[in-house]
Sequence to fold (529 residues):
Amino acid sequence: MTLSLDELSNSLRATIRNTDFSNVSEAAQGAIANFDATIKTVLGSAVGEIRGGVEALTQEIDEAEGAGDPAQIPTVTRATSNVPGIGDSLVGSNGSGSDISTITGTPSAGSDGFIQDIVTAGSPEAIQESLQASVGASARDLQLALQDLTSPDLQSVVSDAIGTSPFADFQKQVNTFVNQLNANIESASEFFLVDLGEKIEKNYETNLLSLVDRSVSDEDIRDTFIEVSRGNYDDAFDRIQNYIDVPDNYDFITENFPRSDWPTEVSEANERVAQAESEFRVLSVELSSYASPYDPSNSSAGVNSQTITGPASPGARQGSTASGDTWNFDDINSLEELESIFRNVNRRAGREICGAIIHWSATFLDQNVGTDWVHRVHLDRGFSGCGYHIIIRRDGTLQRGRPMNRGGAHDINNNTNFLGFCFIGGVNEVSSRAQKPYWRYASADSLTPAQFNAYDGLMRTFHRVFPHGQVQGHYATSDEGKVDPGFDVPGYSLSKFGHQNVIGENDSRWKSSTAITLASIRDAGATFS
Fold:
């Protein structure tokens, strides 16, 4: 027995239906009324207007709005001797009131015993607090006055609302609802987990166990599934990494010593962890297909399929780096904009731009991702952020990545002087149908015509701004068996744009820490602008 998406959806709906929300809704309406009653007043349509023994010293309600409609306004008011129940408390036998006329332009009230001038904002709450501070009047004492200050629909709650939290009952009902919902979900969780476990057993658990050296606990398998479904890949892999055997001093050595100083067993363990993490991320894409399954009726599964069934990745975003900087991931909207970006790097950045290395992201046909996704993956790998300078998305959109005035994180031997451009793609299969080993699906056929059109504009502009620029595929610069981007990069530039590299594909410097420099390119006979 397996759990279908419809069954899961219906069960969740039933759980929510069985959780009473009416009390929360009623409490919310009550909270709104209580809040309005404390801050809104009908006083202020005219200077000198008196309601509940309180006189308006300013006019704040426009006549067009209609008197009697409560509003949250900064009316200035003064208590008179006619405040119901406490007016006599405002009259003293000695002293004098402040000269309000000098402030407001209105005559100052007075009597043989003088009126205490209590000037305050016009909300019921502000008036009550001022009178309580002056003569000890409570909200109950002022009930008639407060009711006269607000609209009929709020008069029944105004005296009780003042002095209390208007949202207290609402918060109580929300807490009750959440507790009830959690209880209902918990009671149904056994059904969810058992059937969901059966659903993922073959496609997830088996493959997950193949990445590690020891059996993973049921709890960690379940928690890993939850974290992946939330997009928390780093937290999910942290759980799994605990089941990969590494030397006792692994963390200390990898965190405190350069790779060149690592003992053999640490280097080998690091390779196993990196490989496991890479496969885990691919597996995570498979897992997400349970929420967004591949539908053959909506896609042509053939070469260069442009149908995207995965989660959308916004085209204009920002990303925070490991150091706290913010990078702009906006789309590049024209070749003129692209040329301006290139020329600014060439002129202002102080970098030697020797060329570009072309990559792919090694993602499935149905992964519609962009710079923000690459950025998160690279942060999880310990980079400062997205390692590529430009991303070529499935629909042909060119998207900014790492700022071009910064060295890349895309090719260990050529990060400093070479820009990195990356196609989204590389695995010529949809995630729900791919079977390990995934490298057998690696092909430039996974790239869309729209991407190649965008690539043509990108490289034509690149060669115009950097005529000396050497272009190469990652396959020729890596010792790790890379095959991206799946086509002959220098040959493509030669046939399409007439650009001839002066550094040959077999030149050892592509794979060496001895960097290719502008001087070496000039010595080899490259053309400079």
The two ends are 68 Å apart (CA to CA). The CA atoms of residues 54 and 424 lie 70 Å apart. The chain has three domains: 41-150, 210-288, 318-523.
